[in-house]
From TrEMBL:
Taxonomic placement: Eukaryota, Fungi, Dikarya, Basidiomycota, Agaricomycotina
UniProt topology in membrane: Multi-pass membrane protein
GO molecular function: G protein-coupled receptor activity
Cleaved signal peptide residues: none
Source superkingdom: Eukaryota
UniProt main location, coarse: membrane
Keywords attached to this entry: Membrane, Transmembrane, Transmembrane helix
GO term, biological process aspect, one: adenylate cyclase-activating G protein-coupled receptor signaling pathway
GO cellular component: plasma membrane
Species this chain originates from: Mycena albidolilacea
Keyword Flavoprotein carried by entry: no
UniProt cross-references to PANTHER family, sorted A to Z: G PROTEIN-COUPLED RECEPTOR 157-RELATED (PTHR23112), TRANSMEMBRANE PROTEIN 116 (PTHR23112:SF0)
Transmembrane segments annotated in the record for this chain: 31-57, 69-88, 108-130, 137-157, 188-209, 260-282, 302-320
Subcellular location: Membrane
Name of the molecule in the record: G-protein coupled receptors family 2 profile 2 domain-containing protein
Length: 401
């Protein structure tokens, strides 16, 4: 994958014959305008979002909500996309062309590495039980090492620079040499990272489905088990199985996990599209309608990256929760059912027989979430402060994903 074909202006010089029809020139002018039209908003919104994140990080109330490994990795990816967007919007100069080319391709690869690390971190923390906070430094160092090896090598070898034949920043060799450098230093690694992202997300989904079936089976067994025992035995039996019914972090944070998984999936889509399009363009220099369509697709696969990333980041659950802390918090518990529960630790309440489930909107109450254990319709439920060790473990895992 290469940055150098992101600008339609580069397409004019690099891939198209010097003498082109007015129709083709007009088409490429339209592509150039459309590219700038999506790249400028992406860079501007990314800058505004990073300023908002910096403000929330300084706010003591909102800072804990942003203390998540995947969100920090996302911020690094946004910074890389801003660098990419600035390079796209800056006219190429012959003097600085070599460094500009290096910085552009490095930004794209680093952004892809951060998305891959987000997917791997979810897998390592939720499935294999690793500590995401400890792995974060290895994600960054490994990404920097890979990006440096893949981009410093052609730069140090003198393969990047001003390509006088086309008047653009490009690899200096003929098309077959360009193709080898492109595949060896960019495309192969981006495709491998895309495969890792997909495999990690699929494995996490399988893990979540298996946990869901296990919890449903345990709940069914609990109802059967408690119905065949005396009241005293039933109470102790339910208490024994209570730990099995508690939702594990992978199920408790299921919506957040699926939402975080959108970042690597988006990166996978953009990376694979641009990689295959780059290789196709270098191996098919003919100016046909299909080839022009591939070049247009490749252009937007690059130029849309900053805008799509910032739109996803703006709706990130951690960021939204941090923004809510700027408003006065409510220390009440609301229910959508026609009956009410007073929040008093240790008290018991009987659930009506016609109520199948309690749909509770439990909010943070003085920094601590109340845990509600529903044993079934027509039975007593006990409102207790959630097990502190379990709650701390869940919050710790939430910071690691």
């Amino acid at each position: 994958m290469s940055l150098y074909i992101i600008l339609p202006a580069l397409f004019i010089h690099l891939y198209l014959p010097p003498l082109m029809s007015s129709r083709e020139g007009h088409l490429l002018d339209l592509i150039n305008d459309a590219t700038l039209g999506v790249c400028i908003p992406g860079v501007a919104l990314s800058g505004l979002l990073l300023m908002a994140v910096a403000y929330l990080q300084r706010n003591p109330a909102s800072r804990p909500h942003l203390n998540r490994v995947s969100f920090r990795l996302l911020v690094y990816a946004l910074i890389a996309n801003i660098i990419l967007g600035v390079i796209v919007l800056t006219p190429s100069k012959e003097v600085t062309c070599s460094f500009t080319s290096f910085l552009g391709t490095a930004s794209i690869m680093f952004s892809g590495c951060m998305s891959c690390c987000i997917a791997l971190n979810l897998l390592f923390v939720l499935v294999y039980g690793f500590n995401g906070n400890r792995l974060e430094i290895y994600y960054i160092l490994g990404s920097l090492l890979l990006v440096g090896a893949c981009n410093i090598t052609p730069w140090a070898a003198g393969e990047l620079g001003w390509y006088a034949a086309n008047g653009t920043c490009w690899l200096l060799g003929p098309p077959d040499v360009q193709l080898r450098w492109l595949i060896g230093t960019q495309s192969v690694w981006m495709i491998l990272m895309s495969l890792l992202e997909v495999l990690s997300f699929v494995q996490i989904l399988v893990f979540m489905v298996r946990h869901q079936f296990r919890i449903q089976s345990l709940r069914a067994n609990t109802d059967t088990f408690s119905g065949n025992l005396s009241p005293t035995q039933s109470k102790s039996g339910i208490a024994t199985l209570r730990s099995s019914l508690l939702r594990p972090p992978v199920m408790r944070y299921r919506p957040i996990i699926i939402r975080i998984g959108l970042y690597p999936l988006l990166s996978c889509l953009l990376s694979t599209t641009s990689c295959f399009a780059d290789v196709y363009i270098l191996t098919h220099s003919e100016l046909t309608d299909y080839n022009i369509a591939v070049r247009i697709l490749d252009t937007f696969a690059y130029s849309l990256r900053p805008l799509l990333y910032v739109l996803l980041a703006a709706t990130d659950p951690s960021l939204l929760r941090a923004l809510r802390t700027l408003r006065p918090s409510e220390h009440t518990v609301k229910t959508t059912q026609p009956w009410d529960l007073s929040v008093s630790t240790g008290s018991r309440h009987t659930v009506p027989h016609d109520l199948a489930r309690a749909d509770l909107d439990v909010k943070w109450n003085r920094g601590r979430r109340e845990a509600y254990e529903l044993q079934g319709p027509g039975k007593e439920i006990e409102i207790t402060a959630g097990d502190e060790e379990e709650q701390m473990q869940a919050e710790s895992i939430a910071q690691q994903i």
